[in-house]
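User: These chains co-purify. Model them together.
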Amino acid sequence: MRRSKADYIEDLIIIIAASVLLIIIIIVAILSFRATAPVQNVPAPSVSPSIPPTVTDRVHKINFDNDAEARLANRINNRPSLAPYDNSVKENMLTTILHGHNSGIVYQSPNVRVEYVESADIFMAEILTTDIQQAKDETNVWFRDQGFRQQAICDLPLMFYLNFDVLNKLSGKNYTFSPVPNSC
Amino acid sequence: MRNKLPFLLLFFVIIISAPFLFISPLSEAQTSQKPVIVIDPGHSGQDKSVTDPSGLIDHDYPNPPEDQEVFDVAQKVKTKLEADGYTVIMTKNNVNDYVSLHQRADIANNAHAALAISIHNDHGQPWSFAQIYVQKVGLHRDTASGQQIKFTDDAVAQKSQQYGQMFAQERTGAEGHNAAVTDENFDNRPGLSPGNIPLVQLFAKVPWVYNEVGASSGYDGDKYAQGLIKSIEKAVPTSGGTTNNTNNTGNGSAMIQGSFDLVLRPDPNAKDKFVTNRATAEVIGGTGGDNNNGGSNFNGQNVPASGNNCSGMYQQYMSMEPSHKNYGDPNCELVKKDPNGNTIFDKDKILAQLKQIKANEANGWFFCVIPNESNYNANAYLKASTSGKGAYGLVQMNPTGQGNGQYDNGEVNWSLQLSNGINYNDKAIGHSFNYWPQSYKSCLSKYGVTP
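Assistant: Joint model of the two components:
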């Protein structure tokens, strides 16, 4: 059957309406997906150092006992627990001398100054004499007099370092320094 | 018979458009019921410092064990909030991700978050240290040239402060100590732009509540998480949430107390309304800039030298050093009395500062370098240095203007000495530690610092 001109116009209107509707749907869909797109982390900007290294040599002042340093670092990093008895000695000592867990000097003499550093929870002993062994022995005796057993003195931990002037006096003399008590 | 193609086409279009016409708007409405919460666990897996377009230093760094602990708290908060009907976005997907502070703020901004929170803890403070920082108009950070970048969005600030009070109340109840709203202070913290607002809050265009709690002793991540969950759910209730209000209306009748469900449906006759919150930052002005004695103050601020020997603690080196000045600790910040009245150097403060500058190397510098370089004396001076110019301060560097570039300067205040040493090692000599005795390297490696 032959179609009339009116039929063609009607078909054309339907096709245009369908096309417009389709375009609207596509636009709505795109806007909808854009609004709900997941938030992505922005890639971090890369920073590449461009400063050429310049090395300044310094005097090799003294030698350090690397094994002893490792044992001290292990105690600082891993914190072995004190036995209940030794822990009570420590708590009692801090309470008696420093009125609690406060930083401060717990012992000092012409040879050594022992300080508790609260934030690091460590006893640091500054050796004030070039007679290193005497300073260490004196310190060890003092801790034993407080009631600590020998292993506990190691585990507190107790760290020795040299006074600035003592260090300079020993500099260049090929001295090897250990930062821990001899028995640790 | 008429051609059926146009009708088939129209039928096809209607069929495929039906989900968008009817289902999509409903889904959108359902989504809009879920408040978006952005959770920002503190710190990044890499130590990076970039200059933001604003001129501020955007610096973040690893800070173990805080990084893992607050990430764990964030995960707990996220899990509970999602179960309770929130949409939760994390600024980091993994604990060691690097996301700059500005990027973190942008994540919350782009998500149009109802609320963003930062979660931190402080291993230099006890559990009782509980602080909350909120956005306030006028809080600022300062660029290296002294320009103040201020927070200026009053609407966001009001919400942040309102939410901050709720956090204080809920965290106090959950954590069992007093959590207080206060301002942060970034002055004299090397590597960070000075000022009094965290950068994530300054860059944010949404309400942001920044949380801190002490972790040196008694830290309880579960209680911390509980406090944060209760705070968020009180500040931004979900649509199915409960509200209680016992206020009087003023005309003698009490407000209804109870709970209700709110369901949003699209109104086809209503026109869309868009409300945009925008925070703006403007340069108000500033003073100063370099204020040291001629040396570098990049990543830190110097304090002019004084003649104060701080109860005699610095007298020995002040008498030896040519200027006879106290350059290292002019205001005696590192000298304190212990409980028995002994004057000592504040080693706790040095360690805390190192952790602020570069946490993963703090122990290496504190236990290997500083005791042997200076005995923790910020005015330590060695005339017979290898440079022939004298060695100055905690890490024994060259005097002002006579070193190798901007960081090789020890003749400055103690905090800048520390940042100069770390910056010189990182940026000038490729993290080799070759400026200092080779014998330190073994010790450093024991604390995870590999030259």
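The CA atoms of residues 306 and 330 of chain B lie 5 Å apart.
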